[in-house]
Design goal:
The chain has 5 helices and 4 strands; from the N terminus they run E-H-E-H-E-E-H-H-H. By secondary structure, it is α/β, with parallel strands linked by helices. The protein has one domain: 3-Layer(aba) Sandwich (Collagenase (Catalytic Domain)), CATH 3.40.390.30. It has a 4-stranded mixed sheet, sandwiched between helices. Helix 3 crosses helix 4 (102-117).
Length: 147
């Protein structure tokens, strides 16, 4: 199995939301091998490099509109070539809604993106349930390893 390198960039213009990027990176690094154990489509692999970029509302909204024809903000967008964009303010809002930390939610978004790259989909309710159960399972295991 080829080694995948995770590349991180924090491109938020406003960094008013405090995040612990080293902690998030440790969680996602611990999650990576777990993601690889059960690709949704047989034989799928991650690209050699996956770039995870943290962005603000304006950037994630612009990309969502340009590439997915939906000009609303979202928490995570994954591109097949190995780029994952995470809308930090949206992730923070979701974290508050679901009762956990922003760091937890950003790590979950990154895992969600990795699973998309491994063939998981959330366009139908059935696939969404499968994907969300898998990402939660992976996140919990990674948190146990890191914490």
């Amino acid at each position: 199995m080829k080694q995948t390198t995770l590349l991180w960039a924090n491109r938020q213009h406003s960094r008013s939301l405090k995040i612990d990027l080293p902690f998030i990176r440790r969680i996602v690094e611990a999650a990576l091998p777990l993601c690889l154990t059960q690709p949704r489509k047989k034989g799928m692999q991650l690209p050699p490099e996956v770039e995870i970029t943290l962005v603000g509302v304006a950037a994630i909204t612009k990309v969502h509109g340009e590439f997915l024809d939906d000009p609303t903000p979202t928490d995570v967008i994954t591109f097949e070539h190995g780029e994952i964009l995470i809308g930090v303010p949206i992730a923070a809002s979701n974290a508050s809604k679901f009762g956990h930390s922003t760091n937890h939610e950003i790590a979950l978004c990154a895992i969600h993106g990795l699973l998309h790259l491994l063939g998981y989909d959330d366009l139908t309710e059935k696939e969404r349930v499968i994907m969300h159960a898998r990402q939660e399972e992976i996140l919990e295991a990674a948190l146990r390893e890191v914490c």
